[in-house]
Design a protein that fits this description.
The complex is a heterodimer of chains A (278) and B (275). With 278 residues, chain A is mainly alpha-helical. Chain A has helices at residues 3-23, 42-47, 51-82, 89-101, 104-114, 121-129, 139-167, 171-179, 184-213, 216-221, 233-243, 247-277, and strands spanning 26-27, 37-38. The chains are: A mainly alpha (278), B mainly alpha (275).
């Protein structure tokens, strides 16, 4: 009963990944098939000297850092507010699902509309305050604009994970603390926060992994631009592989992305365990 | 005195709640209203809240052939969901009930599938599909989507079956029931929440998918998410039609979440917390 699924997953995942690594060892462009030749790890050494790669890497890191940070903080805030019982809680949670459940490309389209320099709603709101920025065409703000859209889309997800963590905290601890004279802030920082740490870590891991995978939003809103300002590792790999048909190099990039994801996940896990041991 | 104090808190809470809901709904609401606004109203610098709704955008969307994308998506996603369930539910059950060497390893592997970025898989699969002539086919997409949905189904159904007490199955076995009938008549009904959650989430994730569809389809099997890009013409973007089409893409998902939201939330959080 288990075997068919395992076989399929191996065929669909392990085989392509092996082929990915294999291809990354070649100079392999679909437009220059005659030149296809084995080059060993040369593609990887090119990566280590590739300015666009580092640009993509830095964009990705900035996206992860700011995005995850904002989403966790907002998520905590919202979880505090929404964790008590109230009528319609289920309905509220279902409505909060919407941003993360609609297709990511629709999210990209929605925010693209909102940011439109002429008739976008956000543009209008900012004009009222006197701020005139073309969010998506300005290299300085384009990535932030995308992060904002991402935050709108995924904070509910973080919120759900945190709320599930909240449920696990017994009421008695709060009552005991109150009897000892703890205030709201006290309760939050010294009771809630430490006890909810595992959920926070889970949220961070999920968001990090998912941000590395982001594609439709950026594709629709900026296509990686202006210039390379919003080109993440994923977008760069796509461009190399499918706009330039360079299979060899993009395979190397793809494999590097895999390693990066693995390393990041391990680092986050290690850091969180260390914190707990102390 | 105490009564008034509580009222104030409640009112503040309500205001905060409404504010939160508005922030998260507003962009979506904006998209929905935009699809019904006449073009001139869409383009006005000052947002218009009261307008005469029009259906021209939906008409243009369908005239442009959007129906084909809808059909493609419906076929691919529904068949894929069935396949995922057929493969995943027995697998989840086995992982829940059996014990064997390497089980831990397997479980890690299944979670690990989530970490893999689609871009890393799509490059080799693109080449493999050219070779296998699976490019631009329904089957091609149906199979590729298994890479992220099958682990999900296995995981969710496993945790669901974990909560079905084994004593019930043991009792049935003592009464002489076969493994197959225990599975179909006891385990599956009791494990329904997980099964529903995984079915719904599978459907939604497949429906929403973009990257694989973009790269692995061209003309015949293009799904609805990629179809949205057909509204970006050379110099002109058909804003109204794009808005209408975007709504069509988002609507099934929203309806599904309203119907089975509770199961989805359970599925999403359970899947996450098991870590």
């Amino acid at each position: 009963m288990l075997v068919p699924s395992i076989i399929i997953l191996i065929v669909l995942i392990i085989v392509p990944l092996a082929y990915l690594f294999y291809n990354s060892l070649f100079y392999f462009r679909l437009t220059e098939m005659v030149n296809k030749r084995f080059v060993g790890i040369e593609n990887y050494s090119i990566i280590s000297r590739d300015g666009q790669f580092f640009n993509a890497l830095s964009n990705t890191f900035v996206y992860i850092a700011i995005g995850t940070g904002a989403q966790v903080m907002l998520g905590l805030l919202l979880a505090e507010v929404l964790s008590r019982k109230f009528r319609g809680k289920d309905l509220v949670r279902t409505i909060l699902l919407f941003p993360m459940i609609i297709p990511p490309i629709t999210v990209g389209i929605i925010w693209w509309f909102l940011y439109h320099p002429t008739w976008g709603f956000i543009t209008y709101l900012l004009n009222v305050i006197g701020v005139h920025i073309n969010w998506l065409s300005n290299p300085g703000t384009a990535l932030l604009a995308i992060i904002l859209a991402d935050t709108w889309e995924w904070t509910p997800f973080v919120l759900l994970i945190l709320m599930a963590g909240y449920v696990a905290i017994p009421e008695d601890i709060y009552e005991a603390a109150e009897m000892d004279g703890a205030t709201g802030w006290h309760k939050f920082f010294h009771i809630t926060l430490p006890l909810i740490k595992p959920s926070i870590v889970v949220a961070i891991i999920f968001r990090t992994v998912d941000i590395i995978k982001v594609f439709p939003k950026i594709f629709v809103m900026t296509g990686g631009g202006p210039g390379n300002a919003t080109e993440t590792l994923n977008l760069y790999t796509y461009r190399v592989g499918f706009t330039y048909s360079d299979i060899g190099y993009s395979s190397a990039l793809g494999f590097t992305t895999l390693l990066l994801t693995l390393v990041l996940t391990l680092l986050i896990t290690i850091f969180s365990i260390k914190g707990r041991a102390i | 005195m105490k009564y008034r104090h509580r009222s104030l808190n409640e009112i503040l809470f309500l205001i905060l709640l409404v504010f939160i809901l508005i922030t998260f709904i507003l962009p979506l609401y904006h998209l929905i209203t935009m699809s019904f606004k006449p073009l001139k109203t869409i383009f006005s610098r000052i947002p218009v809240f009261i307008f005469w709704p029009t259906s021209t955008h939906y008409q243009s969307a369908f005239e442009a052939g959007f129906l084909r994308y809808i059909t493609n998506s419906l076929i691919v996603v529904s068949l894929h969901t069935i396949l995922s369930l057929v493969l995943g539910i027995p697998a989840g059950y086995s992982l829940s009930r059996l014990d064997f060497r390497g089980k831990r390893f397997l479980l890690f592997g299944i979670i690990g599938a989530r970490i893999i970025a689609p871009i890393s898989i799509v490059i080799p699969i693109f080449l493999i599909y050219i070779w296998l002539k699976l490019l631009d086919t329904y089957l091609g997409l149906i199979l590729v989507y298994l890479t992220f949905n099958l682990p999900l189904v296995i995981w969710l159904t496993k945790t669901s079956f974990d909560e079905v007490p084994i004593e019930i199955e043991a009792a049935a076995q003592i009464d002489g029931a076969s493994t197959m009938s225990i599975f179909t008549r006891i385990s599956i009904p009791l494990g329904m929440p997980g099964i529903i959650a995984s079915a719904v989430l599978t459907w939604i994730f497949a429906w929403n998918e973009f990257l694989y569809a973009l790269i692995l389809t061209q003309r015949n099997a293009q799904t609805i998410t990629v179809g949205l890009s057909s509204f970006f013409r050379f110099e002109l973007v058909e804003w109204g039609a794009l808005a209408a089409a975007s709504n069509i893409v988002a609507v099934p998902v929203i309806i599904l979440s309203l119907l089975v939201g509770k199961y989805m939330i359970q599925g999403l959080t359970k899947g996450a917390l098991q870590l």
